[in-house]
Amino acid sequence: MAWNRERTSQQDVQNGRNEAPDESESGQPATAGDEVFAADDDGNASGATDDIVAQLQRDLSAERDKNLRLVAEFDNYRKRMLKGMIESESRGQADLVKALLDPLDDIARFAHVDPATTESTTLVEGVEMVEKKLGKSLRAAGLDIVNPAGEMFDPAMHEAVSTDTAESDEEDGTVSRVFQVGYMFKGQLLRPARVVVRQHSDAN
After folding, report:
1. Whole-angstrom Cα distance, residue 30 to residue 36?
2. Angle formed by the axes of helices 120-141 and 32-111, to 10°?
3. pTM attached to this predicted model
4. H or E stretch including 37?
5. Which residues, in sequence order, are CB contacts of 30 under 8 Å at separation 6+?
């Protein structure tokens, strides 16, 4: 019987060890405080993530606003430049028209003279005066006359309408006559000169 009681006591001790409370990895029993601290750590991590996301959203919104402002500023700059170009072109055209007013007044006066009381010589002199005044105004505005008589034919500036026979090799390819002068305005060809070009007659 004593032996049975001792065996029972050892089993009770063993059962007591198996039913002992859980211990943490450090060997100390787990408590309710440990569970609270773990929950707090999870909450802090979640809060930090929310803060980062919120900051990124604010940064993205700020960059978007910045880009929108840049687009608006560029659009306003483009409109100002276009308006300035139009105004500059209008001022240039107005200056040219202003320079032509005096020749137009002269043309109007000669257009309304009485041919019965006006000599033809007076009319010719008047037309020549208007031509000189008009040419002066246009040259001041940047117009140049292309009159290549005696020069080498240039297909970029001249239009050949006929040919003449060249009497020497030196005359071959030169302009013998100008049917109609050409015009350039500030380096831009407005109309080529219509000319007659000399050609050597070796083939004949």
Report:
1. 11
2. 160
3. 0.56
4. helix 32-111
5. 21, 22, 23, 24
Q: What is the pLDDT of residue 196?
A: 96
pLDDT tens by residue, 28-79: 554 544 554 454 555 566 777 878 888 888 888 888 888 999 999 999 999 9
The whole-angstrom separation of Cα 204 and Cα 202 is 5
Task: Please give the Cα distance from 68 to 80 (Å, whole number).
Answer: 18
- Note the maximum CA span of the chain: 171
User: In Å, how far are 21, 110, 114, 121 from 107, measured between CA atoms?
Assistant: 122, 5, 14, 16
- Euclidean distance between CA atoms 89 and 152, whole angstroms: 36
Mapped onto helix, strand or coil, the DSSP state of residue 151 is coil
Q: What is the DSSP letter of 24?
A: -
Fold for 143-204, please state it.
Nucleotide Exchange Factor Grpe; Chain A, domain 2 (2.30.22)
- At 11 the pLDDT is 52
Give the side-chain half-sphere CA count within 13 A for 163: 10
pLDDT tens-digit readout, 125-175: 888 989 999 999 899 889 999 999 999 999 999 999 999 998 888 889 999
- The answer on pLDDT for 22 being more than 70 is no
